[in-house]
Specification:
alpha+beta, two-stranded antiparallel sheet, about 15% helix
Length: about 500
């Protein structure tokens, strides 16, 4: 880990509250709103979300627990079952020495304490200060220190096989491994009920990758900025959570078939990162020449236009982006995001050419600090986002909308549809108080008032974790499937 006066060690702090759990299937009855014109901007959410009308959202209360399913497919709805929440992948793939099968790390800690060294803490006083050069320097130092924290015992597990890195094992089997004590995976990211021929967007069987937003058009000259909404290929990624994050995951998904979304509050010091890959080749995008290449099971060899349920094949993917988010304080919005992009000219400076792009610690335009001397941020009006993201969104605003039950795209879309879409811009980027006069007055449209977090009445915040939302939705789908199968059996 890099040493710098910018960083201070963090100590674990327990986050628990004994709130009433969401009952099994309590949101299964929510109507699915299919918005064909909706723009899916965040990487974790390429699906139709359940939605409620604004009036319904403002009066929603949690439903009482339904009648238990008794012995109906108990394993398929158990959060801690290898056939339920801990199913690593629905792909029918046993693994080979060259392509080891993905193993889900799920021995979530019972306390939010650090089992390894604590992560580097950003100096928010400097980042928020008036000295722009000092803020940029502090941002760059934090991004580089975070790379060291993330890569420790992760990027060099097997230098002879690219597919055998970033692997985790239970601490009982590998107690000396820093990576296996530090990092955990989110459960319920497989596709419930899926077969190899219809894998959906769930985890692939080699890396545990999930399908992300498709790679939109860019070029060698414009990299990493997106220039068109036309598809070039498919993007895939896998996320990791450190010890405090793993603790929070275990609180939301305990053993059994109950979930506790209200406990999805990450303790101070939580770090989550995601590595992202694309099926786009250097022949189509020369900016990717020399990128770290792995092989994974992806739909239709990663071609555009291939449906999510098309068969998966082992396909080369190139590493183009890494995202990191850290809970630096105890406040509900005390998050900082960092982004790294591939730069083929900087492989000697950063591992695999992952150059720090910048940081974002709020929704205001001035709360993005670009550190790269070469690249610009890909987000809305210069806010932080990478090439695997939607240029109409930003890291902070997209993750801020994580809540359960999930909102309708119509009331809280992922991104403004264009620069004139002032209501949606207000919802996504200016609720942090960017300034009067820039947002239309909120009314029946569903726009949130300035200064209000984008979480609707009747929903609980998932503390900026879109993976929590996806996992909860997959779990509800598994419950619905089990109930349907029980009905057929009877």
């Amino acid at each position: 880990m890099l040493s710098s006066p910018v960083f201070r060690p963090l100590s674990g702090k327990k986050a628990g509250n004994g709130l009433v759990p969401f009952a099994r299937g309590s949101v299964v009855a929510l109507a699915l709103v299919v918005l064909a014109s909706a723009v899916t901007a965040c990487k974790d959410r390429n699906y139709n979300a359940p939605g409620l009308s604004e009036s319904t959202q403002r009066s929603t209360v949690l439903a009482p627990a339904p009648t238990p399913l008794a012995t109906v497919a108990p394993e398929s709805v158990d959060n801690r079952s290898a056939k339920g929440g801990l199913l690593a992948s629905a792909d029918e793939f046993n693994g080979t020495p060259e392509h080891p099968r993905f193993q889900l790390k799920s021995d979530y800690p019972l306390k939010p304490d650090f089992l390894t060294s604590s992560p580097p803490e950003p100096n928010m006083v400097v980042l928020r200060g008036a000295d722009a050069l000092a803020a940029k320097r502090a941002s760059q130092e934090w991004l580089e220190a975070m790379q060291s924290y993330i890569y420790e015992d992760m990027n060099s597990q097997d230098t002879s096989n690219a597919n055998a890195n970033f692997r985790l094992a239970d601490t009982a089997h590998e107690p000396a491994s820093v990576s296996s004590k530090r990092w955990y995976h989110m459960p319920w990211l497989h596709t419930p009920g899926a077969l190899a021929a219809k894998p959906g967007r769930g985890r692939d069987g080699i890396w545990g990758l999930t399908r992300e937003l498709d790679m939109l058009t860019t070029s060698e000259a414009n990299w990493p900025l997106i220039t068109s909404s036309a598809c070039m290929g498919t993007n895939w990624g896998i996320g990791f959570f450190n010890e405090p994050g793993g603790y929070a995951i275990g609180q939301v998904f305990p053993k059994g078939d109950l979930t506790f979304p209200e406990k999805g509050v990450f303790p101070k010091g939580t770090v989550s990162f995601k590595i992202l890959f694309t099926s786009v080749t250097p022949s189509a995008l020369p900016a990717l020449e020399g990128a770290w290449t792995i092989e994974a099971l992806v739909n239709g060899k990663g071609a555009c236009g291939k449906a999510s349920n098309s068969a998966r094949e082992i396909t080369p993917l190139r590493h183009i982006q890494m995202d990191v988010m850290m809970k630096w304080g105890d406040g509900p919005s005390d998050w900082i995001f960092g982004n790294y992009v591939f730069n083929k000219a900087r492989k000697g400076d950063y591992w695999q050419g992952m150059e720090p792009l910048g940081v974002q610690f709020g929704v205001k335009q001035e709360q993005t600090i670009v550190t790269s001397p070469t690249f610009s941020a890909n987000g809305f009006r210069g806010r932080l986002n990478g090439p695997a993201d939607n240029p109409k969104a930003s890291c902070f605003s997209c993750h801020a909308r994580a809540q359960w039950p999930e909102p309708s795209f119509a009331l809280l879309p992922f991104a403004p549809r264009n620069d004139a879409d002032t209501v949606n811009i207000c919802v996504l980027h200016e609720w942090g108080g960017e300034g009067p006069g820039k947002c239309r007055a909120c009314g029946a449209s569903g726009c949130l008032a300035e200064g209000k977090e984008p979480v609707f009445l009747g929903a609980v915040s998932l503390d900026y974790s879109l993976q929590f939302g996806l996992a909860l939705r997959n779990r509800e789908n598994a419950f619905s499937l089990a109930k349907a199968l029980a009905g057929k059996a009877n």
